Amino acid sequence: MDDPQLRETRAGSFGANAALYAEHRPGYPVDAVEWAIGDRVRVLDLGAGTGKLTEALLELGVDVTAVEPDPLMRAELARRLPDVPTVDGRAEAIPLGDASVDAVLAGQAFHWFDNAEALAEITRVLRPGGVFGALWNAYDDSVPWVKTLVSLTATSVSNPSAPAPRHVPRHELLGEVEENTFKHQVLRTVDSMVGSLRTFSHIAVAPDDEREAVLAKAQEYLSGLPDSRGTFYQPLLCEVVRAVRR
Ligand SMILES: C[S@@+](CC[C@H](N)C(=O)[O-])C[C@H]1O[C@@H](n2cnc3c(N)ncnc32)[C@H](O)[C@@H]1O
Question: Where is the Methyltransferase type domain (predicted)?
Answer without folding.
Answer: 44-132
